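User: quick one, fold this
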Amino acid sequence: MSQETASVETKLPKAVGIDWRRGGLRWKISATFSGLILVLGLFVIGIVYYFTNAALQKQVDLRSSAIATNLADAAAGLVSRKSTLELDALVAKYGRLDGVAYAFVQDAKGEVLVSSLQPFPTELKDAGGASAASRMTRVRGKTVYETRATLLDGQLGVVRVGLWAETIQDDVRSTLLPIIGLIAGCLVLGIALSIMLASKTIRPILDLKAIADDISRGRLDTAVSIQSNDEVGELGRSLERMRASLKAAMIRLNRE
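Assistant:
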């Protein structure tokens, strides 16, 4: 049973296309650091996207609420005086604002008094007094973010303003994409630096490997010169002592 398990574990890396035992040290170091940087970068992108999107959505809510409230404040007096022409001009002005899909006023019974959309969409013909302050709806096949504001606490009716969801999403993307692009650029730079660092780190080890190969073939004249005070330097000095000892032993054998 244990032999079968070991056989499966041996074949598993080959099945998934990865064999860490055959990979070079440079590849292992580069892959490890690049993977860590990539995971960290994706995590940062996720956090930035979440909080930035939430902040932008809050700004959209505030803008939509401000438009609806301002329109309700301006329309309250006109509705009470039944100034239909002035009310129509006012609603038409708000309906032409950038990103606004529609704006209209309903009386307390839910009847539409004036609207910036002509003809008025049938999907918007519902009572507005008891509805939520904001909601998502569809108008003429497109998604709209709608906000409502009451006229004189609902006694005169309600104002409804819709913003095109596509415009909101474009604004969010135009803000998020440069940020995500900058983070992605940093990820690419980090991965490139990790590969360069791996190559620089492994170069002394490759030099020692070449020297060890020469020693194993009997070429003992090349001195080991590694100018480093770390573990690689210690390894180089140990290899040099071994080379010198082997050379001295070979000289003694030749004399005998």
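User: anything notable?
Assistant: The chain is about 60% helix and 15% strand.
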